[in-house]
Amino acid sequence: MKIMGIIYSKIRERIMKISTLFERNCKNHKYDKNDDVELKYKLPYKSDSLSEFQSPHHTLRYLWQSNYSAPVEDILLSSGVVLDAGCGFGAWLIDMALEYPTTDFVGVGLSPHQFPSQIPNNIKFAQANILSGLPFEDNEFDFVRLCYFANSLACTEWEPLIKELIRVTKPGGWIEFIEPGLVPTNMGPKFTILIDTLNQIIGERSNIAERLEVILQSTNQLKNIQKDTKSLTIGRLGGEVGISHENSILRYFIDESSVFYNRLGISSKDYEILLEDVRKEFQTRKVKEQFFRFWGQKIEP
């Protein structure tokens, strides 16, 4: 295990070197009127343990230049109640709670240990498995959100989960989903190996991005259902957001290293080489990943 730690610390060092170099370039860059200096949301330049966990949130916020697409601004400004049904480390909740201090936010997660110790006063966390039902009354929230569950749910689990999320949403309230596409496009052979292995590990998963709109319509409990799509190029060819997303991808495969090299039947050293080859592919190929937002309004009786 000591050797493993040394091997993967080297990979992390490579990732941090990329981030540090980009941070330096950003600080030295003279922005013109078309640069992202005018954007409402920029990617953080700081690289630390917290920003690593928040990176997927920052990527989505940067792509859409918003934390949500549903028309809930008035609700958020008038003391609403919001649920993040799979809040992870709470990055989205903290961001939103700071921006809308008069609204109450609730996050649900499997383990209390993943929740930050220091949070704004308008956030509460609840420990629960959303597949077993949410510990809330009917019609409790003005806005309900679920993000990045495509790899966590089997095909048959989506419909009952969506009905449960609708149950806790107030009539006239909104529900929103954010999910990536199932497989990036234009992948190189090394990255394809990792993605194919990931799909083998997680089992049968449908491309929920292709089905989610139909599922939402089939509930007959939602109206004004809409969809929006964004894409990015992974790595330096995709600019600032591409580098940030590359770091997130590599960190994931580092953190789950033993699962992957055991599944592939290779040594830890060969797995390190594989990850380095994947990083090189990102430098030369325009590997694109899509992200989807779906939102709809609960029908009032």
Automatic annotation (TrEMBL):
Q: Where is the Methyltransferase domain?
A: 82-173
User: Per its UniProt record, what InterPro entries does this chain match?
Assistant: Methyltransf_25, SAM-dependent_MTases_sf
One term of GO molecular function: methyltransferase activity
Highest taxon listed in the record's lineage: Eukaryota
| Short name of any one Pfam family annotated for the protein | Methyltransf_25
Cited PANTHER family = 2-METHOXY-6-POLYPRENYL-1,4-BENZOQUINOL METHYLASE, MITOCHONDRIAL, METHYLTRANSFERASE
Supply the name of the protein.
Methyltransferase domain-containing protein
Say which species the protein is native to: Rhizophagus clarus
